[in-house]
Amino acid sequence: MKKFVDLILKFRWFIVTLIPLLTLVLAYQLKYAQFDGSYRIWFGKESQTLKQYDAFKNTFGNDDSIIIVFRDENGIFNKKALHVIERLTQKLWQTKYIARVDSLTNYQYIHKNPQDEDDILIDDFIEDIDALHVKDLQKKREIASGEDLIVNRIISKDAKTTMIVGRLTPKAGNTIGASKHIMQDINRYIQEEKKSGYKFYLAGGPVVNTTFSSLGQYDVKTFTPLVLLIAMLLLWVIFRKISGVLLTVGVVVFTFTIVLSLQTLLGYKLNNFTANMPVFIIAIGIADAMHLFWIYLLGRKAGLDNYAAIHDTLEKNLLPTFLTSITTAVGFASLGISDIVPIKTLGLATANAAVLAFVITVLFVPAALAIINMKVRVTPKTTTQNTLGSFAKKYAKFIIKYDNQIITGTLLLFLFIALGLTNLKVDSNAVHYFREDVPFRQTVNMIQKNLTGPMSYEVVIDSKITDGIKNAKFMQTVDRFSQALKEKFPDARHTSSLVDVVKKFNEVMDADKSIPDNSNLIAQYLLLYSLSLPQGMEINDKMDVNERLLRLTVAMNVVDTSKDLQMIEWIEQWWKKTPYSAQVNGQTQMFAHMQADVTDTLIQSILLAIAVTSLLMFFIFKNIKMIPLFLIPNILPIVLVIGVMGWLGINIDLGVAISGAIILGIAIDDTIHFLVKYKEARKKSFDFENALAYVMQYAGLAMVLTTVVLSSAFIVFRLSQFMLNANFGLITAIALLIALLVDLLLLPALLKKIDGKTKSILIKKEKI
Question: Residue limits of the SSD domain (predicted)?
């Protein structure tokens, strides 16, 4: 150890020059950093869910769209509103990446020819708006209210709300920058229509993608400097040394700059999770640097000269800091097993950052301290044994006196809070990723309240034979399914397929709104309909080229993914009882099936982190009795905070899923510092009381201070409009505070039961 520290002191100028210089060189790469908010980032290239969705798009086209909604309290059927619809419809047709536009004005109205009742006409519902009189508009409204193909789809039942839907091209979702390009055009259109006085609401894939991106970029630009500022203020309050503030902050700035630069150099793009990596690294780096600086100050206050204090600091902190860095890295790296790509990349990158932060801390901080040689006033020594502080002694006596009460109270609290686990739900619905005041979330709520279900399932029904979708029995089965689904699940607002077209034709021809028994008649209806449609409005997005597969779209209310999975399972099981089969597809289905990945991430990452860190502790302490002492204080906070979530009604989402392993990785740091210092005191032949006082003197206060800084850093995320970050920040901050209390109360109380004798059983059995 002495040689290692001597090398740092010898090459101090080289170290403090090289690290900042290397950071500056790598930082040049950050100008090439890109942000990706696409839905595809949540799935790996080999994801079966993604492959299934891509196959759906290749067959039927895109299920994604851009949606413009507005409302007129006096009713949509007036010339001003209709002109707005017509203009927006025409503009969307001319927009890149949009394959089809559906609106009230270009709705293909199926009706009889007034001059020849045997002739069926299909034309735009609204034509030559300026030529329409008040009575004409009233008649159009009456007709529209009876059109099942548009009521509660593109116009509300009360005819006051309408939407214009631009269906995206299949390749739009795979093209980086497509959403940004579309939104630039849409925002320009909305700006041009502001003179109408209407308030426009936007929804659809491009809105979600740009909202992901904008919120992610806002969070990193806002919270990174904010957390740094908070950390600097707290460090100043703690140390009252500007050098302590700058050295600690310097470690984290160097670390996250290097890591982000390397990520950019390797071609990784930022997303809503990895954009927060600097804040994670701030939390990790500050913890290590604070422990070093704290022990350094204690040494200087005790009368050690600069070099001796640096030697003492690294001697006391190198092992625990190394162990905490490794366990933190393990906590983050355990997220690498996740199938959710943003979680995987965040975990692996931050794990590397934890190791890099350790290297920079043990090299840069001592080297800088050697150069600065700050002035520290020596504190007069006390005459008590081992010069232990009075507070530390009082703490040790408190633990010894109330150890039984602490253990009993903790057990009762644990049992009560653990009951909240029964109320837990898992939710990965993308709509719930945003706060209620986010414009996209407001649009979704507005659509659901006034128009239709804003979410959708794409049900692909296999008729089993070529041209099978024209079969009367098949279509009647589809119609029965639609009715059964809406009866079983009121959240299924309506269904849309070629069945509706056939029923409309039959209504016009025979005044019977049902599926005819004649398959040839159905084929004639569909042929007539397809031949009458204008270019771009074809029906090839409703069936495959062999006319074997039928696409049925279900408009759904926003529900928890648990409910989504229940409905998806019911749909597929319903079709298994028929001669046909069905598969639910689309983006809603994709994110619903992420629920299993969320749960797997939470469970597997925690188990992996526990297993690896337990092995590390066994190799360090070489005593099996230390394993439960190590695990209990770190598993307990996770269980308690998840129980609290159950009581508060907070669902487990992606943000919470990643918090488990991270909480474990960071919370373990305090346990390691506690146990290493305890082991050190016992090896010095301290009795149990003095050993606890030694721990509090040299680790306990630093643990409190680092937890305050870390919790402050994470709680800032609660301000985010991106709920995954907000929930993650809240849960992590609470858990770290719980972990600190468990480490400073329950852990020593358990130690008292196991190792409370004058001589240490745990240390005696070691081979030193």
Answer: 251-371, 631-753
Of 289-293, 507-511, 629-633, 758-762, the least confident: 758-762
Using CB atoms within 10 A of its CB, is residue 613 exposed (0-12), middle (13-18) or buried (19+)? buried
List the structure tokens of 159. Answer: 């005819």
Lookup result for tokens 């929804």: 203
User: What's the CATH architecture for 390-423+593-768?
Assistant: Up-down Bundle (1.20)
Rounded to two decimals, the pTM is: 0.80
Tell me which H or E stretch contains 71.
Answer: strand 65-71
Q: What topology is assigned to 1-32+241-374 in CATH? A: Multidrug efflux transporter AcrB transmembrane fold (1.20.1640)
Residue ranges, comma separated, of all CATH 1.20.1640.10 domains in the chain are: 1-32+241-374, 390-423+593-768
Task: Give me Rg for the CA atoms of the chain.
Answer: 33
What is the greatest pairwise CA distance in the chain?
113
At 385 the pLDDT is 42
Instruction: Tell me the C-alpha distance between 250 and 284, whole Å.
Output: 13
Distance CA(282)–CA(605), nearest Å, equals 22
Closest CA to 332 of 614, 606, 733, 618: 606
The vertex-471 CA angle with 470 and 473, nearest 5°, equals 140
Return d(Cα 56, Cα 460) in angstroms, integer.
Answer: 8
CA atoms within 13 A on the CB side of 262: 16
Given a cut of 60, whether residue 382 has pLDDT beyond it is: no
Beta pairing partners, 35: 270
Helix (H, G, I), strand (E, B) or coil at 457: strand
Q: Is the pLDDT of residue 386 over 50?
A: no
Q: Are 281 and 240 in contact (CB under 8 A)?
A: no
Residue 434 to residues 165, 215, 562, 725, 764, Cα–Cα distance (Å): 22, 9, 18, 10, 55
- Would you give the DSSP letter of residue 462? E
Backbone angles phi, psi at 123, to 5 degrees: -150, 175
SS3 461: strand
Helices (H), 419-497: 439-450, 472-488
State the Cα–Cα distance between residues 680 and 577, nearest whole angstrom.
Answer: 69
Q: Which two tokens stand for residue 536?
A: 């771009």
Locate 583 and state its tokens. 């598969």
